[in-house]
Records
---
Amino acid sequence: MKQLSEHYIDGARRSIEGGEVVRVLDAATEAPRVDVRLGGAADADAAVRAATKAAHAWQTLSPGARAQYLLALADALESRASELAEDISREVGMPLKLSRRIQVDAPIAAWRATAALADDFAFVRQVAHSRITMAPVGVVAAITPWNYPLHQITGKVAPALLAGCTVVLKPSELAPSATQHLIAACEAAQLPAGVLNIVSGGAALGAALVSHPDVRMVSFTGSTAVGRKVAATAAGDMKRVSMELGGKSAAVVLPGADLQKAVKATVASCFLNSGQTCSATTRLIVAREAYPECRAWLEQAVAAMTLGDPAGANTRIGPLLSATQRERVHAHLAEAERAGFDRIAGGPDAPVPAHGFFVAPTVYGNVPADSRLANEEVFGPVLAVQCYDTVEEAIALANGTPYGLAATVWAADDATGARVADALRAGQVDVNGARFNPAAPFGGFGLSGMGREGGVFGLEEFVEPRAVQLP
Ligand code: NAD
C-alpha cells in the first residue's frame, strides 16, 4: 500500500509530521490502496508564503513564457497518462477506457489549449484614452473535489498560472494519486519554485487557506454546502471567489424529438462515472403521452449499461468512490421506494458485485417536482423521470430546482431546440446531442455557483482589469 505523506511547497517535497491519516480504498475491490497524511494550518501558511514570494517573478514573465511552462507540464503529464488513468479509475471507479479519455487525455488537452490562449488573450487593451492592463489577481487558493481530480485541478490551475497568478492547490484527499503525478510533472517541467504549491489536507487545511489574509482569490469546486461556507469566509476579506458547485441537470424532450436517441444520451450522461459528475443529466422531462414509450426505451438503454470491474473491456459503469458515497445514494433509493415512485430499472435490491462500492443504475418514473429526488444532487447512478403536459410546464420543471449547471434540449429541429435552450437557467445547454465544447464557459446559475471555467472565460476569472488614463 502506498503512503502519501508530503506537500510540494516552494519547489520541494516536504514530509508531513503527525496529523490525521485517511485511508483510500480501491473502489472496485475495497482493498486498501493509499494512506494519505493530512497537513494543517501551518502548512497552508507555508504554502501561501511560498506563493507570495514567487509572485513577482512569475507575473513579470511574458504570457508566452508562462505558456511554455504549461506546455511542459502537459508533456510531463502525458508521459504518465497510463498510470494516471489507472490510478483515477481505481480510486474514483470510472471504467479504465473512459478514465483515460475523459480523466486524463481531456485535461492534458486543456493544459495545451490554455497555453494557446497566451497568443489570443488581450492582456493589454486600449479603450479611448485608457490603457487597460489585465493584472493577475494575486495568490490563488484552488480547492478541488475527487470526482474528476485532474480535470478539476486543470480548470483552475492552468488559467491561473497563465494569468500570472501563483497558486496553492488543495486537491481532494479522497482521490490523491493524480496529485502525485502532478507534483512529478511540476518537477519535470522545472516550474519555478513557489509558482504552484500543492498541499495535502482536508477541510481544516482548506479552511485555513480560505481565511489566509494573503490569498486574494479562492477558486473552489465541490459541494454547494461547502461552497457556501467558503464564499462566506472569503467575503470577509473581499477575496474574489469562483464557485463550481453541484447540479440537478435536466434533459427536456420536446414533442417531435427523437425519443430513443434522447433516452440513450440521457442514460449515458446520467450514469457516466457512476453518476459522480456535477453536470450529469439526472432528470429526464418527457411529455406525459410519451411516458410509456420512454419507459420501454429506458429499460432497454439501462440493460445495455454493463456494470462491473472498471478494468473490464466492456464495462460502462464501475463502482462509486467509497462506502460513504454508496450509503448516501442508498438513502435516496430507500426514500424513493418508500414514496412508491415507478421503478423502471435498478433499485436498492438489484444485483451488484459482492465487493466494491457498486450501486446498480437506477431509474424512477413519475417523480414529483417537489420530491427530494427531483431536487437534490444524488451523486450516484440514479435518474428521475418527470412528465409535462405543455412545453411551458417542461421549461418550468427544468428550471424548477435551486441548481442551474447544465441542461439538454431534444427537439424536432435545432432552431426549436435553441429557442427552448434560451429559456433555461443553466450555464451549459446542449441541443440535440451536440458535443461538449471545452472552449465554452462552464459554470452554473443559482446554487450551482458563480464564475466560469473553460477557454477565455476561465482565464478572465484570474485577472483584475487596471485602467490607466493617459492625457
Ligand atoms: P466537497 O465539497 O466535500 O469537497 C470539495 C473540496 O473542499 C475538497 O478538497 C475538500 O477537502 C474541501 N473542503 C471541505 N470542507 C472545506 C472547508 N470547510 N473549507 C475549505 N475546503 C473544504 O465536495 P466533494 O465531495 O469532493 O465533490 C463532490 C461535489 O463537487 C459534488 O457536489 C459535485 O457536484 C461538485 N462538483 C462540481 C463541479 C462543477 O464544476 N460545478 C465539478 C465537480 C464536482
---
Amino acid sequence: MKSDAIGTHVTVAGWVRTRRDSKGGFSFIEINDGSAFSGLQIIADQDLPNYESHVLKLQTGCSLTADGILTASPGKGQKVELKADNIQVVGWADPEVYPLQKKRHSFEFLRTIAHLRPRTNTFGAVARVRNAVASAIHRFFQEKGFLYIHTPILTGSDCEGAGEMFRVTTLDPARVPIQDGHADYSRDFFGGPSHLTVSGQMEAEVYALAMGDVYAFGPTFRAENSNTSRHLAEFWMVEPEMAFCDLEGDVALAVEFLKYVFAYVLEHCPEDMAFFNRFVDKSVIQTLENLVSQDFTTLTYTEGIKLLEKAKVKFEFPVAWGSDIQSEHERYLCEKVFNGPVVLVDYPKDIKAFYMKMNEDEKTVRAMDVLLPKIGEIIGGSQREDDHDILHSRIVEMGFNPDEYWWYLELRKFGSVPHAGFGLGFERLIQFVTGLSNIRDVIPFPRTPGNIAF
Ligand code: ATP
Ligand code: MN
C-alpha cells in the first residue's frame, strides 16, 4: 500500500490470520487477502456495535470485510494499520475443525488439504512467484517479438520422442472392441489412438517454419512412473522455437531467458523471496543473484564426460561416453568443477531424440542441456534436423514409422530452414527460484503416480 493512502478511508476484505485482544478494550486482527506476503492489521475497538457478538469470536480462517481510516502504525513490523469503523464477518471458520488453526504444518500434511494450503504463507508466496514467473516469460518473449502459439493437448501421435504417454479414450474399458487380438481404436472417439501431449515442440516447429520465432507455454503430461521430487505427471512447459537459428543461437536465448526471469523475480517479489530465503533455503537469493551476473560455461558432452572420469568422487551411476548424464553428474559439473551454470552440447545421438540435428561426426547431435547448481538439468533443447533424407533415416533407425511423421517430414521438403528450440519445465524453474525441494509444492494441484483425487 502506498504511504500516501494514510489518512484515507478504505474498505478491505480478507481472511483472518490471527486475533489478539488487548487489555485496553480493543483487538488486533491480522488479515491477509493474498495480494502480498504481509497482511494488514485491523484495530477493532470495543465500541464497535458487534464487538462482543462478532469480533471477539473471530478466529483464524474467518473471512471479513472492514472499513475505516488507514493510519500510520506505531507498532513494529508494519507501516500502516486500519482503525475499523465497521467489521462485517462474511464467513465463520470453526476453530475446533479448521485444519490451519496451528501455525506450522508439514508440507506432507498440507498436500492433503490442497483446497486450504494457499492460505498459508508458503503457498501464498509460491502462487505469487508462479504468477510473476509466468508474466516474466510472456514479457521476455513478447519483447523479443516471439509469437505465442497454442499447441494441442490431445494428440494422435503416440510417440513425440519424450516419455510415456497417457491414452485418451471414450471406449468402455469393460467392452473394448477387439480386432486381431488388439484393441480396435478405429472405433474410438477420434477413429484412431489418441494421447495427451508430452510436448508441444513438433507443432511449434510447424509455426516457426511459417512465423519465424514462436513459443508455446502450456500443460504437458508424462506417464513416467517416477515418484521423484522433480517429476509430475502433469506439468507446464515453455517451448520457444526459432527459424533461421542454430544451436549457438538456441543456447544464447536460453541463457538470456533464464537471467531475465531470475532478475524479474528478484525485482518483483522481494517480500516473497525474503521469506523463502529465511525459511526454505538460506542461499536462494544469492544463488539467483549470482546467476544473473555469472557467465554460463558451454562445453561438449564429450568434454563433460572427461571431467567426470577424472573426478575424485564416487558416483552412484557409472560415467561412460554414450550413457546418460545423471543428476549427480550434472550437479558435480556445476557445483564442483565450474562453480556456476553449465551448458552441455553435442550429446551422443543414441541417448537423444531422433529429430535432433546430426553433427558431421555422425556420432553426436546438436543437443543442449542447461544445468544449474542444486538441481541439474532445467532446460533441454536442440537444433532440429532440417535435412529431409537424414531425418527420414533417423526415424527408421529409431524404430518409428515414417508415415506417422509425414507432415513433420514435409516441413523439411518445402522451404526447410535451420531451426532450433528448447523445453523448460515451468515447475522445475519455480522449484529453483523458491528453493522448495519437492515439485509437488510448487504447483497448485500436483498430479503424481497414485495421486489424482486432489
Ligand atoms: P528428466 O531427465 O529430468 O526426466 P527429460 O530429459 O525427460 O527430463 P525433456 O523431455 O527434455 O526432459 O523435457 C524438457 C524439460 O521439462 C526438462 O528439462 C524438465 O525441466 C521438464 N520436465 C521433464 N519431465 C518432467 C516431469 N515429469 N515433471 C516436471 N518437469 C519435467
Ligand atoms: Mn523425463
